[in-house]
Amino acid sequence: MKISKKYYLGLDVGGTSFVAGIVDESYNIIAKEGISAKIGNTVDELVYNMADVSKKAIQKAGLSIDNISSWGICMPSNINPKTNLLVHANCFGWKNIPIYDYLKKHIPLPIYIANDANGATYGEILAGSASQYSTALMLTLGTGVGGGIIIDNKIYAGADNMGAELGHTKLMYDGALCTCGQKGCLEAYCSATALIRAANEAVRKEPSSLILSLAKNNENNINGEIICRAAIDGDPVAIKLLDDYTSYLAAGISSLVVIFRPEVIMLGGGIAHAGDLILKPVNQKLRIYTHAGDEIGVPPVICASLGNDAGIIGAAFLEKIM
Ligand SMILES: [Zn+2]
Q1: Tens of pLDDT along 9-51?
Q2: N or C: which end of the chain has fewer CB within 10 A?
Q3: Closest by CA position to 321, among listed 74, 4, 102
Q4: What spacing in Å lies between the alpha carbon of 165 and ligand 1's midpoint?
Q5: In whole angstroms, what is the distance from residue 282 CA to residue 247 CA?
Q6: pLDDT for 89 beyond 90
Q7: What kind and span of H or E run contains 283?
Q8: How many angstroms is it from 182 CA to the middle of ligand 1?
Q9: Regarding beta strands 111-115 and 68-75, do their DSSP bridges make them parallel or antiparallel, or are they unpaired?
Q10: Candidates 3.40.50.300, 3.30.70.270, 3.30.420.40, 3.40.50.970; correct CATH number of 7-127+309-320?
Q11: What is the 163 CA–ligand 1 centroid distance (Å)?
């Protein structure tokens, strides 16, 4: 029996793990394989691992490379489409790597690469919570704040693919220090790391806070889930933390709304698991903070739905838009 080329190979490259999936034309992941990435490996070693996990996913699906249309990859990086150089991949410490040359030695398929947050946003618009929309933004609220922009069903990443860094939009002049070296970025206020840092400072001033007892009196145990639980239980410190957090987030989103007026804004990452606890105040505040929010209205802020699969599906279908 001849199997037609109706499968797509998507690889989601994270700082700590690589996950490859085989995706069918209806966006179902029919097989998935993962591997942990070791930071500090050479480019050769990491690229070998990227290819190896991808080949294993093909095998797991019971397919051969002849059944696969292309190899799409989402990774935390910026690749200049004019030079095909991976200009920058912070988590691996890579600069100006001819990444396509490395990759094509391993898998003889057309290769497409996008930034991870852009790819995940694309995955959500294909098959996730934005599937009924064509223009959408996403913010992933985790260790940092990733951002993706989709305009008319296509990834928008600016000149030379160096834009869409929504986490590094400026929320505050001379504000809190960001991981990027700048001050006052959205990420410095709206990442999970920023929320936890604010909670640590708050419980030092208010040690009677429920946050600290839920964290077994150890500041190092404080995480987003504990802060949310304390807020649900009425802890005033946690309520104030989330009130500030959602104000920062709504303010940051309002700037994006004024520029893009997307149909929807998705939140992904660990903090988005808090659901309505975050969504409700953010939606309310967004309307208040946004220019002409009452007259024009504001797009809904919703949770992304595919989790880590968004990157695999987005990567797999990059060939449709690149
Ligand atoms: Zn920054």
Answers
A1: 999 998 789 999 999 999 999 999 999 887 678 899 999 999 9
A2: N
A3: 74
A4: 9
A5: 7
A6: no
A7: helix 276-289
A8: 5
A9: parallel
A10: 3.30.420.40
A11: 13
